[in-house]
Amino acid sequence: MATVKPFRGIRPPVQYVEQVESYPYDVLSSDEAREAAGDNEKSFYHINMPEINFPQGTDPTDDRVYEEANRQFQKFLAKGWLVQDPTENYYLYAQTMNDRTQYGIVVCALADDYHKGIIKRHELTRREKEDDRMRHVMVTNANMGPAFFAYPDDAVLDQLVKRYARQKPEYNFVAPEDGFRHRLWVIADKIDIETITKEFAKMPSLYIADGHHRSAAAVRVADEKAKANPHHTGKEEYNYFMAVCFPASQLTILDYNRVVKDLNGLTPEAFLKALSEDFVVEKKGAEDYHPQHLHEFSLYLDKCWYSLTARPGTYDDNDPIGCLDVDISSRLILDKLMGIKDLRSDKRVDFVGGLRGLAELKRRVDSGEMRWALALYPVSMKQIMNIADSGKIMPPKATWFEPKLRSGLVIHTIE
């Protein structure tokens, strides 16, 4: 069963929150973060992406960059731009996108639950990205940004959340970059804290929705700290890492689409003919066309949209992986026809989050940067949980969660 606990969050005073808060470290490039921070010395990018404090082109993995992260963190604390709460709390974090709100409880999750498989993942991680966040956590002794978890819907927690949502939040702002509303409440009541802890203790699993590298890095930090501590008890703060936990039914997963640089030597006519072996191909015309259901794809080629419907026998709806549209498209189009076998490393393919819409796919193809685009039907949270429960791993670039969690609202120190 899942173990969570409250913690003494480090947060910006309300008058500074909109100057401090930022996108997560892995959403913007270094140059984009430098531009977003501008001349705002309170911007959290100075801590979470400290390479912006160096000349352009500085290696983000340089030792000096990580040391700068801690220097900036200490500066924020010294100037009162970040302040630690006096008591251990949980926090309620709400995000509103397109009139739809999801409510997450900010907790400290037990690192050992990751090892035990109670905290379940559905994606592989890359070692160099784990190393980056691990070094950042080690030098600052803090989880600067939370992982993003889903939990099975819980009626008791639903009622508690509704009660807090009727109260005035501590923070309430619209982020300029994404245009979404973000609110945060402090849950300091001892009875409510006990209720949250007990309800999570009834849950057999928590599911990493987003933030696989943050989770893996935090667990590696816990392991290293435990090895280095001859008096390790398992109760130290480094044994826990910060996560925002949302009920699974509230989460929005957007399509994660593909754009490809060439036709692998095929003419457009030959490409469409080859596709017809595994798909029913229908020409839709110049007007944008979204996939309407699972196993249907939208192809954009030469300023025209096509519907591709996978033929029976090309997928297995009884296989948690084999039924996924990302698997179907990877096997039957990218691999079979394009010779693209590794989505993580092949430079001929790129990925576009669904928030950008079909217009971004058209733009990249019409500009000549890419030759064609493929739009997918979104993966469901139920599919993700089924895969995690089966112990399998999803194909790369399968899910795109929105809104992104803002960083700098709550920090967890592991000291």
Model description:
This protein has 415 residues and is an alpha+beta fold. The two termini are 25 Å apart. The strands form five sheets. Strands 1, 4, 5, 6, 8, 9, 10, 11 and 12 form a nine-stranded mixed beta sheet that branches. A six-stranded antiparallel beta sheet has the order 15-17-16-19-14-18, with helices on both faces. The chain has a two-stranded antiparallel sheet with strand order 2-3. It is globular, with a radius of gyration of 22 Å. Helix 4 (63-78) crosses helix 6 (127-140). It has helices spanning 17-20, 30-37, 45-48, 63-78, 111-115, 127-140, 155-165, 190-201, 212-228, 268-275, 325-335, 357-366, 381-390, and strands at residues 4-5, 10-11, 83-84, 90-97, 100-110, 119-120, 142-143, 147-151, 171-174, 181-187, 206-210, 240-247, 253-254, 256-260, 279-285, 296-301, 304-310, 349-353, 372-375, 400-401, 412-413.
In brief, what are we looking at here?
This protein is an alpha+beta fold and 415 residues long.
Mean pLDDT: 95
**Which structural class is indicated by helix and strand composition?**
alpha+beta
Low-confidence stretches: none
CA radius of gyration is 22 Å
- Largest beta-sheet details: 9 strands, mixed
- Put simply, the count of helices is 13
Q: What is the approximate shape? A: globular
Number of strands: 21
Helix-residue proportion:
25-40%
**Intertermini distance:** 25 Å
Strand content: 15-25%
Secondary structure elements and pairings:
Blueprint: E1 4-5, E2 10-11, H1 17-20, H2 30-37, H3 45-48, H4 63-78, E3 83-84, E4 90-97, E5 100-110, H5 111-115, E6 119-120, H6 127-140, E7 142-143, E8 147-151, H7 155-165, E9 171-174, E10 181-187, H8 190-201, E11 206-210, H9 212-228, E12 240-247, E13 253-254, E14 256-260, H10 268-275, E15 279-285, E16 296-301, E17 304-310, H11 325-335, E18 349-353, H12 357-366, E19 372-375, H13 381-390, E20 400-401, E21 412-413
Parallel strand pairs: 6-11, 8-12
Antiparallel strand pairs: 1-5, 2-3, 4-5, 4-10, 5-12, 7-21, 8-11, 9-10, 13-20, 14-18, 14-19, 15-17, 16-17, 16-19
Helix pairs in contact: 4-6, 6-9
